[in-house]
Here is the input.
Amino acid sequence: MSVTVRVPAKVNVQLAVGAARPDGYHDLANVFLAVGLYDEVTVTESDELRVTCEGPDADQVPLDRTNLAARAAEALAARYGRTPDVHIHIAKDIPVAGGMAGGSADGAGALLACDALWGTGASRAELLEICAELGSDVPFSLIGGAALGTGRGEQLTVLDVGGTFHWVFALADRGLSTPAVFREFDRLVEGTDVPEPVASRDVLQALAKGDPDALAAAVSNDLQPAALSLFPTLADTLTAGRAAGALTALVSGSGPTTAFLARDPESAAKVAETLRTSGTCRTVRTASGPAPGATVTTGR
Ligand SMILES: C[C@@](CO)(OP(=O)(O)O)[C@H](O)COP(=O)(O)OP(=O)(O)OC[C@H]1O[C@@H](n2ccc(N)nc2=O)[C@H](O)[C@@H]1O
Ligand SMILES: Nc1ncnc2c1ncn2[C@@H]1O[C@H](COP(=O)(O)OP(=O)(O)O)[C@@H](O)[C@H]1O
Here is the structure.
């Protein structure tokens, strides 16, 4: 018996970051938008826990117990007093270490898939609690759509979205470590008064209206200076996308993926084509959002 779950990537249309907390995390106002780039996680009953992965970035994905999908299976099994003996196969299309929450997607996907395979009867609230233990971004991967994340990003408020937003993503030739980007943020703000992170009314209204021009004017990412400091050539990618007609350009989360908002699919295709030949990125993808959260597609 096996179960397959499809899980989306995300882009952060606002990422407001507060000062480092005593536990090392940062309070956030994190406005997530799920976009239609997906990983597929299949779990099959097996005699031991093992992970395999296929896809263009598969060689960068850990296959041991540090894999978030393996950790999700272990966490659910521990809670229900059983062994996590499943083969987890990840068909990976979300860039690895790209600021698009690929590992988080696999964690949420494996959790939902194991839950369905084992018939635990866990409530949505219980699954979200396990997600939050696995990582700050994991709860959002489960719910998808659009949401405001507060605390370290794990406390979610679902947001209304009044239309479809068309995005182009430029993938870089190497990843960036999320903790390293937060550390660089701390270094850059040292000695300054970091304001409490607050959700932007303009961002929320633009999402609710489905208005790409208004969203383009309102997006922000407090981690962008840190990502650019660690990966200066990303500035060239942002410039190339803006010159190609994107309404706005920003780093996705902790990067290094850069995100470009377009007015419609035709404009997105044009921006994508220009970026593809610009020599400023490894490859380019287009995707629209909001996309649904983790969804069981086949199984049992
Ligand atoms: C920055 C964001 C924006 O959505 O994602 P990415 O762009 O990397 O995908 C997230 O905050 C990443 O979430 P996630 O990748 O789940 O992070 P976690 O596993 O919880 O934490 C990894 C490390 O990131 C830092 N961290 C994470 C979240 C947070 N609110 N404050 C932090 O300082 C800490 O150094 C922590 O040890
Ligand atoms: N299932 C997984 N897929 C990808 N990376 C994973 C996974 N599980 C753990 N990781 C680790 O998490 C790191 C961050 O990867 P990822 O979640 O793709 O990026 P980001 O945090 O930038 O969104 C990777 O470098 C890898 O070591």
